[in-house]
Amino acid sequence: MIGTRYLVLSFTYLLTTILFIDRVAISTAKEQITSEIALTDTQFGWILSAFALGYAIFQAPAGAIADRYGPRVVLTGIVIAWSIFTVFTGLAWGLVSLILFRFLFGVAEAGYFPSCARIIYLWFPAKERALAQGVNLSGTRVGAAFTLPAVAWLVASAGWRNTFFILGAGGILWAVVWFIWFRDAPENHAGVAQSELTLIASGRGVSAEKAKPLPAAVLWRSPNLLLAMGQYFASCFTFFFSITWLFPHLQRTYELDAVQTGFFAAAPLLGGAVGNWVGGALVNALHRRGHISNCYGYVAIAGFLLAVLGLVGTLTADNAVWAVAWLTLAIFGSDMTLPPSWAFCIAIGGPHSGVVSGMMNMSGNIGCFVSALAFPYMLGAFGSTDQFFIAAIVLCLGAAFLWTKVRPDQALNERFIRA
Q1: Looking at residue 345, which CATH number applies to its domain?
Q2: What pLDDT band is residue 207 in, cutting at 50, 70 and 90?
Q3: Residue 173, C-beta contacts closer than 8 angstroms, at least 6 positions apart
Q4: What value does the mean pLDDT of the chain take?
């Protein structure tokens, strides 16, 4: 019999895929949008960054809300909200409206991954959490990879406005089913057997559905959390290029048509999906073998070094095939770092996993905000993409160093974690 916790993971995996389809569709439709509304590349960069900014600044508040009120209600609300703003994107009439709608879309999406961290804390034993995170996060890459060729076809067939209307409807349907079926704690779900409850509780420590508020001072004074935030900035700076500027960059540089570009641009994202699975599986394997203090750092450092290798190779590529091959390695490596990052936040945050992971994800999406603007501005200033990739190399090397300083055995604050 399949454990109910795996059905929960299937639900969140599906939603992760939907989330990134909704997110990446705007890059796929860039040429149609900029042509109809008469936007420059830098103006479009601000539209992409508006999402990242809204998404970043509401991470910690959304995580705290998920910790306090539970992911069933919170996740239902945010999915409906982001689906509404997906529809509103299709109603935009100019630069200002697109910036506003994408900012609000980012605000609405902000609570998703912190809510998922809370779900994985409540529904999975410690030894399974990293792989569960890796599987769930891989949906972001599969969703984006599916989007690039499929939405390119949908935009060409139905128009970019109708595309966003269709995508918004899918999220609302998911939210309704989730609210009916899911429960915040496995103890309250009729489909969970006693043997599964025992397994889940073995590594969780407490079973409370709601956590007391965690003082902000505890978060900002934690060296562990600050290190996690720093390395996640680098990871997201590197990855965000693949869902924002990679499609138009390949299309323009190598003179490809939209559908052909979509298939090329999907490869790094699929590499990222595999990287998430590999990273999660390696952390779990090391954890089972007793390397509890080092399992996160070993995998994350290896991932960042692979990302550096891929980015260096990108600087030497002279055709679309080699450019995509090296970028696939880079995204594979950077995405290997995600499962250890999120599992680390759960390890040090415990019942406050939502707000802790929200803080890390806030920093990461500030990296996304910077990345979306850095690419067009660097290209305009230097006439080359090399400077952007060199910046990503430096950040990844710095992130690998930060992982040598983390202490997974030190919770944020034992007194508050027990509260």
Answers
A1: 1.20.1250.20
A2: very low
A3: none
A4: 84
What residues contact 102, with CB distance under 8 A and at least 6 apart? 26, 47, 48, 50, 51, 54, 85, 89
Phi, psi of 301 (to 5 degrees): -60, -45
Residue 150 φ then ψ, to 5°: -70, -45
The domain total for the chain is: 1
The pLDDT tens digits for 251-286 are: 888 877 777 787 888 889 889 889 988 998 898 888
378-405 mean pLDDT:
92
Return the closest-CA partner of residue 80 out of 198, 152, 173, 1.
173
| Torsion sign over Cα 300, 105, 91, 158 | positive
Question: Per the structure block, which two tokens stand in for 249?
Answer: 């960059």
Q: Which three-class secondary structure state does DSSP give residue 292?
A: coil
The tokens for 389 are 């990739």
Cβ atoms within 10 Å, residue 191: 13
Show Cβ contacts of residue 172 under 8 Å, excluding neighbours closer than 6 positions.
79, 80, 83
pTM: 0.74
Q: Flag whether pLDDT at 415 surpasses 60.
A: no
Asked if residues 378 and 387 have their Cβ atoms less than 8 Å apart, the reply is yes
**118 and 66 in contact (C-beta within 8 Å)?**
yes
Token pair 């091959």 is at which residue? 325
- The C-alpha atoms of residue 206 and residue 4 are separated, in whole angstroms, by 19
Which residue from 15, 36, 14, 41 is spatially nearest to 90, judged by alpha carbons? Answer: 36
The DSSP string of 378-402 is HHHHHSSSHHHHHHHHHHHHHHHHH
Distance CA 9, CA 185 (A): 14
Residue 406 pLDDT: 87
Q: Residues, the chain, total?
A: 419
Question: Residue 129's domain spans which residues?
Answer: 4-417
Q: Contact, 213 vs 358, CB < 8 A?
A: no
Strand positions, DSSP E, 203-296:
none
Kindly state the DSSP code that residue 211 receives in the 8-state scheme.
-
Tokens of 365: 């999406």
